[in-house]
What we know:
Number of domains: 2
Mean pLDDT: 81
Low-confidence stretches: 6-18
CATH architecture of the largest domain: 3-Layer(aba) Sandwich
Order of helices and strands: EHHEEHH
Distance between the termini: 36 Å
CATH topology of the largest domain: YefM-like fold
Radius of gyration: 20 Å
Structural class: alpha+beta
CATH class of the largest domain: Alpha Beta
Oligomer: single chain
Strand order of the largest sheet: 1-2-3
Shape: elongated
Amino acid sequence: MSDHNPPRGFSERPAAIRPKAAGADPRMREVQSSEAKTHLPQLLDEVERGATIVITRHGRPIARLVPEGERRRRDIAEAIETMKKLAKERAERFGTMTVDEILSLRHEGHKY
């Protein structure tokens, strides 16, 4: 629950802008066109934070709101740099790993 109070009569996440199903990507939502019209500022805030919004009319997708491309490229570049930094720190601390060692870790801890 957030610290701010939504405007009277407006819930934090109306049913029309919740993820489609359990296990659905929380960063992708389907929104009815009428809800998109009513809640556009809130939807744009979510898109600014990285969400993708699919706008539907009568259950059919008609439009998609996606984060601006340059910001997305910057976020991806930052994530890659963070992964490289972590890999370097891990290698310095524990040594390098062979491809076979990496592949053997894929299912470590799985129950099957």
